[in-house]
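User: For my dataset I need records formatted as: sequence, then structure tokens, nothing else. Please produce one.
Assistant:
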Amino acid sequence: MSTFRLDDAATFAFGPPSLPEGLPSDAPVDSTLHRRILSLPPEAAPLPALPLGPAESLTPGALLGQGGMGTVHAAHDAVLRRTVAVKRPLPQAGPRAAAALVLEARVLAGLDHPGIVPVHALGEGPDGAPVLVMKRVEGERWSNLLHAGPDLDRDLHITLQVCDALRFAHDRGLLHRDVKPDNVMVGRFGEVWLMDWGCACPLAGAVTTEVVGTPSCIAPEMLDRGAGLSPATDVFLVGATLHQALTGRARHAGAGLREVLEAAWVCPSQELGPGVDEELAAIVNRACARTPAERFADAQALARAIAAFQEHRAARELAARAAALLPELEAAIVQGRAEADALFAQVRFGFRAALESWPGCQEAAQGLSRALAWMLPHKLEHGELGAVEALLDDLPPAQRQEWAGRLSTARAARAHAEAERRSFDLAVAARERRDAALAILLLAGSMAAAVAWLRPARDLSSGDLVGLAVGALVAVGLSLVPFRRQVLATRASRAILLGLVGILAASLAQRLLGWSEAQPVHEILRADHLLFGLGLGLLSMTTERALLLTALPHLVAVGLVTAWPERAGAIFPVVALGALVVGVVALARRARTR
């Protein structure tokens, strides 16, 4: 890269409220002042001839732009068959403009970056003046786009691309010093080029020796002779440019050049207005802080802050869309509408997406908390404990602990209720009750057969009936031994067992009473039939309905014994065993259907 030096004639003194020497008070505040004029080193080699004319390889075309020192024309490159841009100094600008063009070309040649216009060639034209051939940039100046109105996405995209070009230039040891909307071109496909490097200076040892730049966005240290310049200087210019894009007004304002430069020197923090997001306004004001140490250290740090804002903005937009559904969600929960779950899923997705993009998004955190404050009690009330557990991770730690406790309590209550339900569920241990009843039938039948063989029915006494009652209780106890765990596991089974034992115990008691009072056998057996019929009937109503089939034969037997008392001894075992058989069959059928 070439060595640059400032022309010794370009000096000034600045001290507010005076103007720098040589600056007219009516100079435009948005035009570049005291463009740095460089001198070629004495050892610079002469430029090669660059033919330019209708019969040459480069044919000049339409005028693309003109400044105080030069012009830019479109030109047709006959060799490569493309359109390029040709920049030449104005004849009246003198040799200093020619030198500036040469050095600008060499500056650009060292900046091979997509956001900086590439140089194709540098040579001497037919008139002896230098000719700079560059890429033809087709697009609009950012300043022209701003006239059509602000577009935040577009303007932030442009700012980030400018920051990237500046970062590259700073890495190559150059400051731009004149970033503004007029010096940024935007292509049809969003390409961004940082133009006009005529004010660029070497970064190493850069100090202010003359007023260089555009007054409406100039950095304070650029007005202070002897002040050091740094990447933070270009950061200020980018911040001032973004300020103009966001608000439609220059960072430094005043009635004339003097007031504008005084505003630039004081450089207060500014309100950007209600239309600019507070976070973005803070970024602009930090970039435009009066002291370089208070600004972002470099263009990359500024770009990171802007990129973070874009993420935050996207997160806030997601949160806003989700928040718009909250009233409808709350109404759906209150009214018990079926779409409450679908609405909550949308709301939750929006808030969580916002928080994943930016964990610090308070709008999303508060909105999600509000949605959960409605949905969690709703799910808990409807017993959807799995859904409650799935939502716990969305809660802050304190609320998560509280709801984990409520969930634990609800689960314990559910487990207790389930245990109670199961304890009264007749479907539980139905097969075991059937098998136990079958065992009772076999054992009781065997006992009845043995008694009938040993003692005919007509010879039964009240004492024999007492013995049979005791045997029945023993038979029930022995029959339950193999099935005791399953049968006694539920309250329903225990109720049936206790009911049967109670009926047998009552039968034993009334037989003992009849024996002690010397009652006739048929009266004792009739009372037994009535006791078994009513007892089993009541038990069937409160436990197993199949027991009703065992009660009916006993109730019928009451009439039979009353009609034929002399046959009571024969009626009772037949009815008792028959009722037991009916009960076993009924229990077996119920067990198969469960």
